[in-house]
Amino acid sequence: MELVTTPGEQFPAHDAIAWAHRMGARIPLVNAPMGGVAGGRLAAAVTAAGGLGMIGMGSAGSVRALQRELPHLRGIDGPFGIGLVDWVVAGEPRLLEVAIEARPALISVSFGEDLGWAARVADAGIVPATQVYSGQDARRAQAAGVGVLVARGVEGGGHGAVNASLLPLLEEVLDAVMVPVLAAGGIGAPGDLAAVLRAGASGAWLGTCLAASSESLLSDAGRRALVEARGDDTVLTRAYDVGMELPWPAKFPARVLRTGFTDRWTGREEELAMDAAAKRALTAALAADDPAVAPIDAGQGVGSITSVEPAARVLERLWAGATGSVVS
Q1: How confident is the model over 174-229, as pLDDT tens digits?
Q2: Domain 7-217+308-327 belongs to what topology?
C-alpha cells in the first residue's frame, strides 16, 4: 500500500498500517461483526475498500445463515473475518467448524468464559480474536492464545460489558498485553479514529458508523432511524433480550436506540420476563419491523451518521480525516 500524504495530515498511523499489512489489508479498519447488520455484502465492501470485512453471526447466527452470506465474498481480493457469539456456538458447535472451513483471516468469538476455541482456530492458521473489557480479560485472552484483542468501550452499540469508556480501557489493555489491540466503541468521526490510533491501537473495530451503509443488512426503516438519531438517543438495556427470551448473560446489556419499549421496560426486566402479553406484542412488532419498537443497535457515535452511503465512502472519510492520507 502506498500512503499519499496530504497537506492536512493529522496522524501518521504507521504502526497500525503494519498490522493491517500482516492481516493482508491496506488500512487497519475492521467492521464489527454485527448480527443482523454485517452480512457478506458489507464484509465484501469493507474488504474491497482496503479494510478487513467481517460477517457477523449474532443471536440468530446459524450454519445456514453463515453459508448464505459467504458467497458474497467470492472473488474478493483481500482478507475477511467471521464473528461469532460464544453461547450461540455452544448451541450449534458446527458453526465454528463451518467458519474455520471458510478460511477467513480472522475469527472472533466473544461473550463467553471458555477460550478453548482459540487454539483450534490458531491451529487452522487463522487469527483468533475476542472482545475484552479489562486488563485482566486481556491477559487471560492472550494467555489462551488469542492473537488480536478488541478493547470495547461502553460507548459501543450492541452487547457489551459496562466496564469503562474506550480511551481509559484501551490504555489499560495496551499496558497489559503484547498482542495487537483494536479499539471499539463510539468511533464515528475522524477525530475519534485519530485518538485511538494515537493512543496505540493497532486499528479500529467499527460498528455503528457502518450500520447505515448501503451494503448492510438493516432494513430501510432501520437505516432511517440511525440517520435521524442523535448521540444521546441511545440507552443500555436488557429489555429486548428478556422480551425475546435470548440467553444473553446479564453482564452484557445492549446499547440500542431508545424506543417506547425501552422506556417502558428498562429496569423492569424481571416483570417483563413474566409478562407473556408484552412479549407477544414485541414479537409482533419485530415481525412487522416497526422501528418505533424493534431494537436497533447503536453506539454513542450514532450522531455522526447523516446519510446512507457506501461503506467505502465511510472508510475513506474516516481514514483520510484521521491520518491525512488516502489509500491507493
Answers
A1: 999 999 999 999 999 999 999 999 999 999 999 999 999 999 999 999 999 999 99
A2: TIM Barrel (3.20.20)
